[in-house]
Amino acid sequence: MTRRLQVVYLAAAWCLSYPDEELIGRVPLMRAALAEFPGTVADFQEVLDRLESTPPMEIQAHYVREFDLGRRHALHLSYWTDGDTRRRGEVLGAFKQAYRQSDILVDTHGELPDYLPMVLEYAALVDLAAGRDLLIRYRASLEMLRFGLLRDELPHACILQAICATLPGKSPADEQAVMRMAGYGPPTEAVGLDPYDPRLLPVKGA
């Protein structure tokens, strides 16, 4: 079970990262590792196929367009729950604290500490229990990202589905159920597209 979780998390971390030459070269390694667990590779198949068959510049431009330039598919977990509010600084500090508690120095490579590929890699290679705790704590963020990817018909939605399937409980059936999971009031159309209205955020200590 531990090995399977580590493989899923590391493959997901790589597939959700910027597709540079090094990452594209890892595709055979990901295929071989995922093949150890029947059924697992299916969730990664389309993304891996695209990494191998699409010209690097084209797939890199697509990645930047979908994950870097907009917020529809934000890969920073606290964005979905805290937007660009003051409270987010405290939340990011909690991620850093989790990393500091491990015996291995975590290099954030200039990214915010809640960057999903980093959290996944931390879980896979450094501290599985602590990494899973972060994923469970931000399950609603994962689910909102999954729905955003599904809406835009991106194959990465299956990878988010694979991540969520490793966590306790079933995935919510719709975005309203995700909002209830996160403890918010009635959802708005802006959810997942722009930072949340701070008035909808849960009050600390409530």
From TrEMBL:
GO terms for MF: metallochaperone activity; unfolded protein binding
Residue ranges of coiled coil: none
One Gene Ontology term from the biological process aspect of the record: nitrate assimilation
SUPFAM superfamilies, sorted: TorD-like
Protein name: Nitrate reductase molybdenum cofactor assembly chaperone
Pfam families xrefs: Nitrate_red_del (PF02613)
InterPro entries xref list: DMSO/NO3_reduct_chaperone, NO3_reductase_chaperone_NarJ, TorD-like_sf
Gene: narJ
Keywords, sorted A to Z: Nitrate assimilation
